[in-house]
Design goal:
- By secondary structure, the chain is mainly alpha-helical.
- It has one domain.
- It contains six helices and two strands, in the order αααββααα.
Length: 139
């Protein structure tokens, strides 16, 4: 975000057109990782699902079911292209999970919280904005 965008907003559409650069930086960082393999989408979703089954900070069955429903949104080609930010939400899911899966449980917990929050705005911009909150942002 530019300096003039110093305000933050809970409205995901506030960030329309402002996330392409952070996304490109994330992709570049991952591409610089040596011997890194970004797992395919189906395996990423399976890993996240397995993580929720083995250890999850989600407290209720309702939260787990919501997270699983939100994961299903990423399986469709429809509705995952964020035109405002030029981001494929499915690719971003893979990149973000790659970044958080080896961190401590608090990073994965934040990831799952953002996944659940997608229910409050499941449009492509809502998905990408929430996922990008899970990775460090550098100007």
């Amino acid at each position: 975000m530019e300096k003039s965008d110093s305000k933050l907003s809970l409205n995901t559409h506030f960030y329309d057109g402002k996330l392409e650069k952070p996304y490109q930086r994330l992709k570049a960082q991952i591409n610089m990782d040596i011997n890194v393999e970004i797992v395919p989408l189906d395996k990423t979703i399976a890993e996240i699902t397995q993580y929720m089954a083995d250890y999850t900070p989600l407290k209720t069955k309702s939260e787990i079911n919501t997270a699983l429903r939100m994961l299903q949104l990423f399986q469709s080609e429809k509705g995952n292209w964020d035109e405002a930010n030029k981001i494929d939400a499915r690719e971003l899911l893979r990149f973000v999970w790659h970044r958080v899966r080896d961190f401590d449980p608090s990073a994965k917990s934040m990831f799952l919280e953002q996944l659940i929050d997608i229910q409050n705005g499941s449009c492509p911009q809502g998905r990408t904005t929430r996922l990008l909150q899970c990775v460090p942002y550098e100007k």
